[in-house]
Amino acid sequence: MPMHRNTLRPIIIAVALTLAACGGKNTRDDGPGSTRIPDLPGDAIPRPEPRGKYGNGRDHGSGPEYEVFGRRYFVMDSSAGYQERGVASWYGKKFHGNLTSNREVYNMYEMTAAHKTLPLPTYVRVRNLRNNKAIVVRVNDRGPFVSNRIIDLSYAAALKLDMVKAGTSLVEVTAIGFDEPQGDRPTREVRPAQAPLVSTPSVRPSVTPSATPVQIFVQVGAFGERTNADRRLAVLSRSGVQDAFVHEDNASDRTLYRVRVGPVADVVQYDLLVQELETLGISDPYLITE
Asked: What DSSP assignment string belongs to 224-259?
């Protein structure tokens, strides 16, 4: 859930009050209710923008960072190369008209979003992995500070992805950047994890919604040796993780044995699985669609 405050460093108590309802919010109460819904806008149109004066932590000295509930977050130097899959949520009328972290006014009918570490502003493409619908939004806020959530969408953005009723959805978020790659992209962890760079994505038209059901799996390891994959599979089996299997990938010169779990039915099942994997020391699982 976004923070909606003037600065990122102080006022942790105010942040706690803002976030008190996060995670288990009743989405029906956060929508427009009986109010007439304006015509939905088109996607946000990416354009070069200077880094915002507010919402980016400290840009000099010890680095752009801020702290919430005793956890420190580091704002990325660049959005270039960022791509992540995980859970999206949305926020609506409870914050409609409030200030975002970069001191703009939040409008639930605009195509905007909140993110913990992307520079403000950043344009991102968000794709619903379940139905393949995609949108482009402008990130101008901080959050969501809820476990296992990577982005918080405006009501309009969530409506266009067909995720308002459920409240959450499994998505892919890709930055549309205008700056040069800096080397890392963040994962669920606070500190960035080393990952190969990808080329700066271009603005593409919305993807055609999938006509057939999409199956989603969670990948928890890729190994060059089958014995290592079987070892990971045994760990999952002993812990009670069901529906785990080894997928043999022969697409490249060297066969990879990918350990996967699924298919995953919904966000609730995904959250429970991630919690179980964390107890086993398995971090940063990756969502796969088929």
From this structure: SSHHHHHHHHHHHHHTT--SEEEEEE-SSSS-EEEE
